[in-house]
Each structure stands twice: as structure tokens, then as C-alpha cells.
């Protein structure tokens, strides 16, 4: 314990509202230099504290978590937030070592550290998979006392405050706190900062979810090998501790496991874009014997049996077998189908959910397994309500936990935390492989699991086209044009004999809190349940990202071994015709296909 003698006087600084501080689906993200501008971060943080006060959250004397993904300007931002938190009345601040906490680990800390559910919330300094650096992106989001992202009613209050904030409060004489090692710093007036091992709480929770000894037996099998790519994001310390430490994987299993403020930067194979997909996870994809289209390539070294990756803040995951890519939509469905092999669900799985653009593979499994299944808008906060249904937050509602959920954007998780959890998803796969290998008396691969799944449930061929950095007004015009045609295309026939069943703008009526979320994406659904979906992404910084999702179902007795990108190409042609995307955006080809 270190005593810090300092003046805790609260200083008030005049400010004025700064336009454009409305958070997207995953918090407020802007260029780093914009965040570094005068009062930009402080205005937003003060607005959050003001909104919490308006909502009756017990900030005074409370505990707050503050950490981030290690990107450029994280250390400075954390120190600013610490000074403002004490000025707002916070009694105790928890920080991970190095100022690091993955997004799922932050949720775990809020939920289980100490006696559990001690903090009233936490700030996560992250822009997720977006590149980090002085010329790239920075972000911040606030998570509530349940460990999940602030719901819309709370973020709306925060946004209201950003438009009227006139003063900022700091304990400006609090010195910089050393976050490099575990320590408790005692400040005057009963205030404190506790720096703790950034891995320990998340690891302890994961050990309750999985049978580590069983997975360790898989990892020690002579014909098993694996590789894990942290892409120089925050996952590095977690990956080293879990895979090479707890599970005994060979030294060197964890690649790019030292967090960097620029996630490897322009000189890295992924150009600092720590996003685990076929386009950006270049090193992992090559090591696993594939190219960016997911096609097999010749390699000059042995291919691991299992491969995985994380993004910058470690909430996303990517799963590969040897020369075999598992799409996120399939990964979610396959985990749910095999949930009985995971100790976390030994009492049975009660509910599951997917984001609307995610393929319907999950729905087919849920129907056969008689599990409640939900389709929600993109954004993890929508899963949070379903996981909290029947708890003290919504005591009169039905409980759907134990619960598994996921998104096509490489996010998968369960009700152990209230964020998507990249490490959890990888361990879920390893647990399934471990139990199946144990039962079979030989190594069962990810490809074996996938093929068995498709033979039982059929296959939802699926792809996503991303058109990044397009002109935002033009993209919005395109979406408006399609929305105005809602319902008018029903019954029309398109190439390949496809007949339109539904064309609309997706609207979600939350069964838990009764809220309605409008304008959540354009849907074209055909009578054979093929789907074309359009969304504007809320996670970018420059321009807009148009996401186009394509899905075609093949029954269990059909052709299950085609290449997914080829199968959905005819749907892409129809989608370009329906959207007039080339006319509106000027784009001939997508930036990313995954």
C-alpha cells in the first residue's frame, strides 16, 4: 500500500458543448487527435457523470473501473478520467496493470471482483478493432453495474448532457498514478486507486465456465497443435497466461502477444487493423493454409490443427481448423448445438440469440433443441436485457439463462459476462473438441465438428461484403430509397426463381423492457429463406461503412461442401440491383469479404 499525499480540492473549469459526441453501437469513436483536443474527452466523461447523477446512480463513495485496450493515448486518457472521477465523488478506482483490461475482462471485473457487483460501472478506453495511433482512432464507452454497455435510455441522457455541458470538474492536483504493477494507492479523504493483475478476474471466471484439465488433455495430444494471434492487441497477456500457462501449449503458440499502442502499425501484415477476419488476420490465415477468400493454399510448413485470433480489445474471435474456416454465424450455431459438452451449461441451455444480420443457422438448432431463440439488432446491449431478464433488474420477466449469443461480426459470448468474449469463444471450441476427442478416442477436428453439424442441420451459406469509407450522405440516401420500398416488392420474382417474401426495415420490440428500436437494417427475405441484408455500420470513424449480408440455406441432404462465397454470388448480383449501390457509392467492389 502506498500513501499519496495530495490536495483533493475540486477545480471547476469552464467549457462549451462539442458537436458530434453521440456514441455509436459500441461507444464514442473518433480520430485520436480529435480526442486529444481541448476538453474533448473531458466533456464526454463529465456528461457521463452528470447523466449518472440524474439517473440516481450512487457515484458518491462508489467504485469505478477505468482501463482500456492499450492503444495510443490510453495512459493519458486514464489519468484524466481518474482526476474527474474523484471530482465526481467516486471513492475507489480499479485499474488493470498497465491500464489494460480487455472489454470482456472489464465486464468480468465489474461482475465478480471482490464480493461481486461492487462497482457502479466502468470506462473502457477502446475503439475495438479500429487501428490505433496518433493518426488513427480512439474511443471510449461506459458500462453499467451489470458489466454491460449502457442501454439506450442511459446513452440518450449522456448525449443530452454533451449538448449542454458548461463546466468540468477535476481533482487536478492528484498526481499521475503508476499503473505498471499491482498496488493500492491511498489518497486523502478516504479515496483510493487499486491496480490489479489485469488477467486474474477474467481467468478465474473462465475456469468456472470450462474444464481446463479436459482442454489441457486435448492440447497435450501428440497430433494436436494450435496457434493464437492476438494481433498486438490487449489479448496478449490473457493468451499467454491461458494457452501457454494454464493449458500447457507449446512456447510460441501465442503470436503477436505483446500489446502495442498501434496494434503493430502500418509495418505489420495487418497494417495495425487488429480485426480477426480473413482479410486482416493475414498471418493466422496463411499459417492455417488459407488465403483471404478462405481457399486452400500450399504451405511450406506444417499447418496447426486449430487456429484462432482476437481483435484489439479482445471481444471478437476467429475460429479456423487446418485449411478450414468456420464462419462466425456457424460458430455460434455449433457452440449452441454442442453446449451440453461445456460445464457452464451442465444444467442445460435455456436461451440463445443472434443479431439480425447473423445467419439463421442458430434458429434451426434452437428449434430442434427446443431452446428460446431471439433476433435482435446489432449491438451487444440488446443481448444484455435478455440475459438480465428474470433477475433483480427485471424480476417479473421470464429467465432465459443459461444463455449463449453472438453476431456475424466475429462476436460470441454467454451470460458469464455482459460483453462478447473472444477468449470464451475459443475455449468453448477447445472444450467441444476436447470432449469429442475424449469420446472418440482420437483427435476430432474443427472440420469434423462442422461437417457433422451440417449433415444434421443443413448449411447456411453466408458472406458479408463491407464497403468501407463511403460518402455518408450518399449511403444514407441509398438506405432511405430501399426503406421507402418496404412491402412493395413482396411476390416479385428475381433471378434464379427467387420470390420475395419480406422486404422491410427491421424494427425490434424488446420483450424485456418494452423499448422499440427502429431503423435497424434493410431486409430482403425470399420464400426459400435466402436473405439479403443492408446496414450502415456504427463502428467506423471516417465516412460510412455499408455492410451487405448474403445468405442461402442448403438442406442436410444437399451439397454441403461448396465454397460459401461462390454460393451467394447470385444473391450479391440481386442485392446490387435492389440497392443501386454502384450508382450511390461509386464502388465496384467491396473493401472486405468475409
Count of helix runs:
18
Distance between the termini: 49 Å
The mean pLDDT is: 97
Uncertain segments are none
Describe the sheet with the most strands: 8 strands, mixed
* Main structural class: alpha/beta
The rough form would be described as: globular
> What's the arrangement of strands in the largest beta sheet?
1-9-10-5-4-6-7-3
Number of strands: 28
Radius of gyration: 24 Å
Tell me the strand percentage band. 15-25%
Helix content: 25-40%
Topology:
Elements (H helix, E strand, L loop, with lengths): L1 E2 L7 E4 L13 E4 H4 L4 H15 L8 E6 L5 H14 L4 E5 L6 H10 L8 E5 L11 E7 L8 H11 L4 E4 L12 E4 L5 E5 L3 H10 L2 H8 L6 E4 L6 H11 L7 E2 L26 H6 L18 E5 L6 E5 L2 E3 L1 H10 L13 E5 L5 H9 L2 E5 L4 H8 L14 E5 L3 E4 L7 H19 L5 H12 L1 E12 L1 H12 L9 E2 L3 E8 L2 E2 L6 E2 L4 E5 L4 E6 L7 E11 L9 H4 L1 H11 L1 H5 L6 E2 L1
Parallel strand pairs: 1-9, 4-5, 4-6, 5-10, 11-12, 11-13, 16-17, 16-18
Antiparallel strand pairs: 2-8, 3-7, 6-7, 9-10, 13-14, 14-15, 18-19, 20-27, 20-28, 21-22, 22-25, 23-24, 25-26, 26-27
Helix pairs in contact: 2-3, 2-5, 7-13, 10-11
Question: What can you see in these coordinates?
Answer:
The structure is a single chain. The strands form 6 sheets. This protein has an 8-stranded mixed sheet, with helices on both faces. A 7-stranded antiparallel sheet has the order 21-22-25-26-27-20-28. The mean pLDDT is 97. By secondary structure, the protein is of the alpha/beta class. 30% of the residues lie in helices and 23% in strands. It has 18 helices and 28 strands.
Amino acid at each position: 500500500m502506498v500513501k499519496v499525499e495530495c490536495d483533493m480540492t475540486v477545480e471547476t473549469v469552464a467549457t462549451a458543448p462539442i458537436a458530434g459526441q453521440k456514441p455509436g453501437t459500441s461507444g464514442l469513436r473518433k480520430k485520436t487527435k480529435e480526442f486529444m483536443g481541448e476538453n474533448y474527452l473531458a466533456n464526454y466523461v463529465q456528461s457521463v457523470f452528470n447523466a449518472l447523477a440524474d439517473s440516481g446512480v450512487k457515484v458518491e463513495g462508489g467504485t469505478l473501473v477505468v482501463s482500456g485496450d492499450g492503444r495510443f493515448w490510453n495512459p493519458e486518457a486514464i489519468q484524466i478520467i481518474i482526476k474527474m472521477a474523484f471530482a465526481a465523488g467516486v471513492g475507489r478506482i480499479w485499474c488493470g496493470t498497465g491500464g489494460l483490461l480487455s472489454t470482456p475482462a472489464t465486464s468480468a471485473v465489474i461482475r465478480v471482483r471482490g464480493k461481486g457487483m461492487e462497482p457502479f460501472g466502468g470506462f473502457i478506453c477502446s475503439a475495438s478493432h479500429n487501428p490505433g495511433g496518433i493518426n488513427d482512432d480512439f474511443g471510449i464507452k461506459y458500462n453499467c453495474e451489470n458489466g454491460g454497455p449502457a442501454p439506450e435510455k442511459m446513452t440518450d441522457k449522456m448525449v443530452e448532457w454533451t449538448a449542454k455541458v458548461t463546466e468540468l470538474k477535476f481533482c487536478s492536483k492528484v498526481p499521475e498514478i503508476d499503473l505498471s504493477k499491482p498496488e493500492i494507492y491511498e489518497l486523502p479523504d478516504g479515496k483510493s486507486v487499486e491496480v490489479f493483475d489485469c488477467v486474474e478476474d477474467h481467468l478465474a471466471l473462465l475456469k468456472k465456465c470450462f474444464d481446463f484439465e479436459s482442454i489441457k488433455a486435448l492440447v497435450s495430444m501428440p497430433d494436436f497443435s494450435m496457434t493464437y494471434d492476438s494481433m498486438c492487441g490487449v489479448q496478449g497477456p490473457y493468451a499467454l497466461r491461458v494457452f501457454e500457462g494454464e493449458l500447457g501449449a507449446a512456447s510460441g503458440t501465442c503470436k503477436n502477444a505483446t500489446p502495442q499502442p498501434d496494434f503493430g502499425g502500418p509495418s505489420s501484415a495487418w497494417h495495425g487493423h487488429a480485426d480477426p477476419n480473413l482479410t486482416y488476420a493475414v498471418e493466422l490465415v496463411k499459417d492455417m493454409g488459407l488465403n483471404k477468400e478462405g481457399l486452400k493454399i500450399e504451405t511450406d510448413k506444417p499447418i496447426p490443427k486449430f487456429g484462432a485470433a482476437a481483435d484489439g480489445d479482445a471481444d471478437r474471435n476467429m475460429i479456423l481448423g487446418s485449411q478450414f474456416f468456420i464462419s462466425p454465424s456457424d460458430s455460434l450455431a455449433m457452440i449452441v448445438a454442442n453446449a451440453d459438452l461445456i460445464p457452464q451449461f451442465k444444467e442445460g441451455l435455456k436461451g440463445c440469440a443472434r443479431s439480425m444480420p447473423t445467419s439463421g443457422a442458430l434458429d434451426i438448432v434452437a428449434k430442434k433443441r427446443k431452446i428460446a431463440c431471439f433476433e435482435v439488432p446489432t449491438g451487444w446491449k440488446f443481448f444484455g436485457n435478455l440475459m438480465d431478464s428474470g433477475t433483480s433488474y427485471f424480476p417479473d420477466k421470464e429467465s432465459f439463462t443459461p444463455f449463449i449469443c453472438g453476431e456475424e461480426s466475429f462476436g460470441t459470448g454467454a451470460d458469464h459476462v455482459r460483453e462478447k468474449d473472444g477468449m470464451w469463444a475459443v475455449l468453448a471450441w477447445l472444450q467441444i473438441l476436447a470432449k469429442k476427442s475424449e469420446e472418440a478416442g482420437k483427435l476430432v477436428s474443427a472440420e469434423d465438428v462442422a461437417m457433422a453439424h451440417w449433415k444434421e442441420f443443413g448449411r447456411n451459406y453466408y458472406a458479408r461484403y463491407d464497403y468501407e469509407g463511403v460518402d455518408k450522405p450518399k449511403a444514407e440516401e441509398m438506405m432511405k430509397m430501399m426503406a421507402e420500398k418496404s412491402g412493395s416488392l413482396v411476390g416479385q420474382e428475381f433471378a434464379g426463381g427467387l420470390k420475395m417474401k419480406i422486404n422491410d426495415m427491421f424494427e425490434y420490440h424488446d420483450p424485456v423492457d418494452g423499448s422499440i428500436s427502429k431503423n435497424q437494417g434493410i431486409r430482403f427475405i425470399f420464400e426459400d429463406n435466402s436473405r439479403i441484408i443492408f446496414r450502415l455500420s456504427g463502428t467506423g470513424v471516417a465516412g460510412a461503412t455499408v455492410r451487405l449480408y448474403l445468405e442461402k440455406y442448403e438442406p442436410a441432404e444437399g451439397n454441403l461442401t461448396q465454397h460459401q462465397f461462390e454460393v451467394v454470388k447470385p444473391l450479391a448480383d440481386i442485392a446490387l440491383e435492389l440497392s443501386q449501390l454502384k450508382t450511390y457509392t461509386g464502388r465496384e467492389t467491396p473493401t472486405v469479404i468475409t
